[in-house]
Amino acid sequence: MKILITGSTGLLGKALIETADRNYEIVATYLGNYDIDDNYQIKYKKLDTRDKAGYEYLFRDFKPKVVIHTASIGSPDYAEKNKEITWDVNVRGTQNILYICERFDAKFIYISSNGIYDGNKAPYGEEDEAKPINYYGQTKLEGERIVQKAKTPYAIIRPILMYGWPHSFERGNIVTFALSKLEKCEVVNAYDDVYLNPLFNRSCAEAIWKVVKEEKYDVFNIGGAERVTIYNLIQEAACAFKLNQDLIKPVQQGFFNELVKRPSDTSYKTEKMEKGLGIKPLSLKEGLCIMKEIRQ
Ligand SMILES: NC(=O)c1ccc[n+]([C@@H]2O[C@H](COP(=O)([O-])OP(=O)(O)OC[C@H]3O[C@@H](n4cnc5c(N)ncnc54)[C@H](OP(=O)(O)O)[C@@H]3O)[C@@H](O)[C@H]2O)c1
Question: Which terminus of the chain has fewer CB atoms gathered within 10 Å of its CB, N or C?
Answer without folding.
Answer: C
